[in-house]
Amino acid sequence: MTDIAPQTRANARRLRAEMTPQERKLWMQLRDLNHRLGLHFRRQAPVGRFIADFVDFRRRLVIEVDGGLHGGPEDTARDAWFQGQGFTVLRVWNSDVDGNLEGVMQLVLDALEGGLE
Fold first, then answer.
1. CA-CA distance, 17 to 23, in Å (whole number)?
2. Does position 1 have pLDDT exceeding 80, yes or no?
3. Residue 4 buriedness (CB in 10 A; 0-12 / 13-18 / 19+)
4. Is residue 35 helix, strand or coil?
5. Residue 41 in 3-state DSSP?
6. Taking Cα atoms as reference points, which of 67, 15, 11 lies closest to residue 43?
7. What number does CATH give the domain 6-112?
8. What backbone torsions phi and psi does residue 50 show, to the nearest 5 degrees?
9. Closest CA relative to residue 14, chosen from 41, 60, 57, 46
């Protein structure tokens, strides 16, 4: 078993059921990449004491979709923790998912470049 706290698991399940419209939109695109490129993105996945919006553990990539309440010191500390665990963290704004999904997906593909086999 993993070191994920039961409360963190419960919170992740709740977040999967209550995804924002932007998270749902990005998830559809990431699922497509999973099928086409053999990736394995997971949504609202526990990673340590945190819950990543999207993560591909094999490629060590975390994608966070942020609204207006994000980007402060807590997110900076969270990003530092992920990076300390060997993850690359991409943060995208809700407005980018809504207005420039193609650009967001290009950012994801650029981050994955070299990790695809």
1. 11
2. no
3. middle
4. helix
5. coil
6. 15
7. 3.40.960.10
8. -105, 170
9. 46
User: How far is residue 25's CA from residue 19's CA, in Å, rounded to a whole number?
Assistant: 10
pLDDT in tens, 29-67: 999 999 999 999 999 999 988 989 999 999 999 999 987
Q: How far apart are CA 65 and CA 72, in angstroms?
A: 14
Q: Domain-by-domain residue ranges, the chain?
A: 6-112
User: Which residue type occupies 95?
Assistant: S
Neighbours of 97 (CB within 10 A): 22
Q: How far apart are CA 110 and CA 98, in angstroms?
A: 20
- Give residue 97's identity as a one-letter amino acid code: V
**Residue 104 tokens, joined:** 């967001």
